């Protein structure tokens, strides 16, 4: 970020302790690099490991919980940095990317907690070190429309929509406090990508931290079906492409529209997910609020004597831009990147029909679209009135 005018220098040591993801933060180690094996095994690094595990587990529970780790807040700058390195290393070797994405959201939120109150010179310094594209001039930041859209698109708050920004000559100007929120998104993106680790390193991390991975699996369990509907594990790999894409969007900590959030909760309820599983689906949302999410999930699932609201039909999802039958080029697996032929069968009109055709079980409700696909039963209503899980917005 280029800065017009003067700005006081920022102490690099305190900066790196608070923002350990910044390039150059390894200066906290005084020029003595720590090897992966040392960080994983040596007794001298037990404290950074313990705090690193606390970072990982707190993020798995609640993306806002990193603010409340007392040992982290009280630790010396180099220990904090090493605990960050340890957490990132371990999660890059995790069997599933979900925990890394959740942690990236949590670390970005922790960074934002300070950035939002930071003096202008600190904001400038962070932006410069992150290569944030824009110019800071007094209390505002100006950046290209394309850069703005890239950073703001996962942000759900209405005031970040491009239509609400003053655009001149292809440039957008936002107040500094909003630039802090854009920086949060830039941080989340950079941390959500795993470190490129060689196979022997992955194996070593998994062996050394098997207990932590076990704890993570208990805190982030595989979806479980409700007794009477779909006892046992839900068949997530047989969910339709639209639903899988909605889940990936939230896991990455990106924005999912109201229609998508509502449909996801209603779908998960109809395929038998319990309330915990449905709430968990929203934990990665940038604006996740546990109590609000629980309230809204309860509202959606208790409707109509527990039948819940009807998930949207394929036509409705297409009109909202949520159908993913053509494939998702950003998906991590080839199966999700390619076109799904089942979705192109004329008879397929509802995501629940898709799940049943792939062998899944859904709640049997007359006329709700969950009947056999061959019956031609029309899906019922689409988006029912209600609020969006995780934020409480309508
Ligand atoms: S065709 Fe229907 S089930 Fe398939 S991805 Fe689109 S909305 Fe989902």
Structure description:
With 394 residues, the protein is mainly α. The protein has two domains: 2-192, no CATH class; 223-375. It has 18 helices and seven strands. It has helices spanning 12-18, 36-41, 46-61, 70-74, 77-92, 98-115, 120-130, 145-152, 176-192, 199-208, 210-219, 241-251, 258-270, 275-280, 290-306, 314-319, 334-337, 351-357, and strands spanning 2-4, 135-137, 140-144, 167-168, 171-175, 224-225, 232-233. A five-stranded mixed sheet has the order 1-2-3-5-4. Strands 6-7 form a two-stranded antiparallel ribbon. β6 and β7 form a beta hairpin. α1 (12-18) packs parallel to α5 (77-92) and α6 runs antiparallel to α9 (176-192). The longest helix has 18 residues, at 98-115. It is globular and about 65 Å long. The protein starts with a strand and ends in a 37-residue tail after the last helix. Bound molecules: iron/sulfur cluster (SF4).
């Amino acid at each position: 970020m280029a800065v017009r005018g003067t700005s006081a220098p920022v102490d690099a040591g305190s900066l790196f302790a608070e923002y350990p993801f910044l390039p150059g933060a390894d200066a906290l180690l005084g020029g003595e690099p720590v090897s992966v094996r040392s960080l994983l095994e040596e007794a001298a690094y037990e404290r950074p490991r313990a705090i690193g595990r606390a970072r990982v587990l707190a993020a798995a529970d609640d993306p806002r919980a990193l603010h409340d780790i007392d040992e982290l807040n009280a630790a010396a700058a180099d220990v904090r940095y090493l605990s960050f390195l340890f957490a990132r290393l371990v999660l890059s070797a995790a069997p599933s990317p979900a925990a890394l994405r959740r942690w990236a959201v949590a670390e970005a939120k922790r960074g934002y907690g300070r950035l939002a109150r930071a003096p202008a010179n600190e904001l400038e310094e962070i932006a410069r070190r992150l290569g944030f594209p824009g110019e800071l001039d007094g209390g505002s930041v100006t950046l290209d429309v394309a850069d703005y859209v890239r950073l703001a698109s996962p942000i759900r708050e209405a005031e970040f929509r491009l239509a609400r920004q003053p655009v001149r000559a292809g440039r957008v100007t936002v107040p500094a406090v909003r630039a802090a929120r854009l920086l949060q998104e830039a941080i989340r993106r950079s941390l959500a990508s795993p470190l490129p680790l060689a196979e022997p390193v992955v194996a070593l991390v998994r062996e050394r931290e098997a207990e932590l991975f076990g704890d993570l699996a208990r805190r982030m369990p595989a979806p479980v079906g409700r007794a009477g509907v779909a006892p046992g594990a839900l068949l997530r790999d047989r969910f339709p492409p639209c639903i899988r894409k909605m889940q990936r969007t939230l896991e990455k900590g990106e924005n999912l529209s109201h229609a998508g959030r509502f449909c996801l909760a209603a779908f998960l309820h109809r395929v038998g997910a319990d309330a915990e599983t449905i709430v968990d689906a929203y934990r990665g949302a940038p604006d996740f609020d546990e109590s609000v999410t629980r309230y809204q999930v309860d509202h959606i699932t208790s409707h109509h004597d527990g039948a819940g609201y009807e998930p949207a039909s394929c036509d409705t999802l297409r009109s909202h831009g949520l159908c993913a039958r053509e494939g998702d080029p950003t998906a991590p697996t080839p199966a999700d990147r390619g076109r799904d032929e089942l979705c192109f069968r004329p008879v397929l009109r509802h995501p629940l029909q898709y799940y049943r055709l792939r062998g899944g079980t859904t709640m049997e409700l007359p006329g709700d679209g969950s009947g056999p696909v061959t019956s031609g039963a029309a899906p019922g209503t689409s988006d029912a009135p209600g609020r969006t899980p995780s934020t409480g917005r309508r």
